[in-house]
Amino acid sequence: MSTKGSRDYRPLLHFTPPSMWINDPNGMVYVDGTYHLFYQHYPKEAHWGPMHWGHAVSKDLLHWKHLPIALYPDEMGYIYSGSCVYDRKNVSGYGTEENPPLVALYTNHATDGLERQCLAYSTDGVHFEKTIHNPVIPNPGLRDFRDPKAFYNPVKDCWSLVLAAGDRVHFYSSEDLKHWEKTGEFGPEGNHSPGIWECPDLFRVKTEDGDSLWVLVVSMLMPTENGRSRTQYFLGDFDGDRFTVTEKSEEPMWLDFGFDNYAGVTFQNTEEPVLIGWASNWEYANETPTGEYCGQMTLGRKLHAGKTEKGLRLISGFAGTDVLTAEMEPVGEQKELKSETFALRLKGTKKLVFANGNGEQLTVEVTEDEILVNRSSAGEKGFQESFGTERYSRLRVPRLRKDGELVMIFDVSVAEILADDGAVPITLTFYPTQPYDRLVTEGSGEVWISSAP
């Protein structure tokens, strides 16, 4: 269970629940200028429990309004992860042409472990009604069968979804969002990392040379000996029924190289892919010292594909954060920090040390060949036995674009780093017992910083 830390660790920019527990983002959809974020939520305790769907909305991905819980557990089980689509043409019949519905597809997880895909709908964007025809996709006899991500299929002009099925994903298609037919599978071939697949997503991205390709994202529950929970992606083609890899790699392609980014999926109905993940880690998420709340989301990330020293890779850019990076001032060898929330930009090679009066420090270093992060002395770590270990304290990530810049957004107890022009994303949490009040820099690179408004 979470225990109360020495101070308030709640970030200012990253989404957190009003109180209690959150994990995976769910049902993310963009409608008429509003981003809807649903999320796995246990409203009674600051640790994992019977899952609900929490709900919040935003106009800019930074300022969120909390709405009533959208979906509660029922006689079929807990409400696990899933997705929402904006049924603009009302093919489901749950709305009208003048008032199209939101249609949610989610996993019901029964107390005996049985997982089935179910449907709920809303005509006001707030209150959801579950269909009496649930489940809309029965379990085919699999232990792990969950997390449906629905999307518009431009190849067949219908709706499709991808869901996790053990060590692979299954694809389904539908004309009305209610009746689904299986069209194909992907995996485990092409996968370079063992583990149960979760929270899949399939979407199209543009490349820097003007082409486009499809991206399949799968979060990985990995064996302890292989490290932490991570999110892998594959680049390829979708023929309307199934996905195939076209950009082959001899190693996994990771969506984020840090300790604390999992279950990321994109918003449905945006012009370009915008992804949000859960900024935590199953190894220690239940025991973080954050008190009345537990867990936060990453910031939004815009995605495209670009060339790197290891071939074509996803390139991330922060979404909605222009207000933080518009005006930045240069940093010398030392800078007094007056805020716990700020943006930072680094060009060249440099070591950054964020420090406070309690002797705690977080270091980020860019060398010619690597990005190094060290949170071993960053703050509280005794709340859970794994958090302070070497495996969860230090990162060494090879660079992918050695002339690229680094952008970092620092937010009280969570930081997101987009290094090498976004080819190397790193997310991490930390719990300094008092705010970092100074930044010390070493090296020839240039650094700029700006405080949050």
Automatic annotation (TrEMBL):
Give the matching InterPro entries.
Answer: ConA-like_dom_sf, Glyco_hydro_32, Glyco_hydro_32_AS, Glyco_hydro_32_C, Glyco_hydro_32_N, Glyco_hydro_beta-prop_sf
- Please list the residue ranges annotated as the Glycosyl hydrolase family 32 C-terminal domain: 341-439
Question: GO CC: one term?
Answer: cytoplasm
Regions crossing the membrane: none
Q: Which GO terms describe its biological process?
A: sucrose catabolic process
According to its UniProt record, what is one Pfam family this protein matches?
A: Glyco_hydro_32N
Query: Which part of the chain is the Glycosyl hydrolase family 32 N-terminal domain?
Result: 14-310
Which is an annotated GO molecular function term of this record? Answer: sucrose alpha-glucosidase activity
What keywords is this UniProt entry annotated with?
Glycosidase, Hydrolase
As for family, the record states:
Belongs to the glycosyl hydrolase 32 family.
Q: Which PANTHER family match?
A: EXOINULINASE INUD (AFU_ORTHOLOGUE AFUA_5G00480) (PTHR42800)
Question: Which protein is depicted?
Answer: Glycoside hydrolase family 32 protein
Protein's organism: Candidatus Fusicatenibacter intestinigallinarum
Q: What is the lineage of its organism?
A: Bacteria, Bacillati, Bacillota, Clostridia, Lachnospirales
